[in-house]
Amino acid sequence: MSHQWETVAGRVLGSSLHDLSGHRQYANTVKPLTCLMIDELNWSRVVNFPGSISSVPDAPGVYAFGKVAKVLGLPSSIEWVYVGESRNLRLRLANHRAIEEANELLAAWLRSNKSGIEVWYATTELKERKTVERRLIREVAPVFNKIKYRIGGN
Asked: Does residue 106 contact residue 96 with C-beta atoms inside 8 Å?
């Protein structure tokens, strides 16, 4: 089966999210020049998870799992279920396979959703990945993230 990839510049995880430039809420512990200048990320999509992760870079970055609903093959909505960050995206995504997943709720979701799972990822500077992850968790409120960040704080 061929791998399906899509690069999206200027959009953050599809139409259900705000552009990152729309909100400027920062964690209290982050100095103003680390991640504050990011207005957008270049996102790539893994459609056939987990089989397609071999082409994911072994670079630092952020990622998000979503369930895509389609109408006649056209994506109509995405439910974001988990957002994470890693020093090595390929290795971290390999750890998210249902049989290896430590988050019990996410593991059960991965086992029960064999189709429609998409993983989106974007590479970042190593020092920016945690700030970007926090910001995404605040804005998309993924259901399986155990830590929730409030707007205006951590």
From this structure: yes
Rounded to two decimals, what is the model's pTM? Answer: 0.70
pLDDT single digits (tens) 15-57: 333 333 333 333 333 333 334 456 789 999 987 777 778 889 9
| Domain span at 25 | 7-140
Indicate whether 148 belongs to any domain.
no
Beta strand pairing call for 7-9 and 74-86: unpaired
- Per-residue tokens: 47: 């459609």
User: Torsion over CA of 13, 49, 86 and 80, rounded to 10 degrees?
Assistant: 40
DSSP string, 36-88: TT----EEEEESSTTTTGGGS-SS-EEEEEEEEEEETTEEEEEEEEEEEEESS
Write out the two tokens for 140: 């998309």
Largest CA distance in the chain: 46
> What CATH number is given to the structural domain containing 103?
3.40.1440.10
Structure tokens at 18: 């705000």
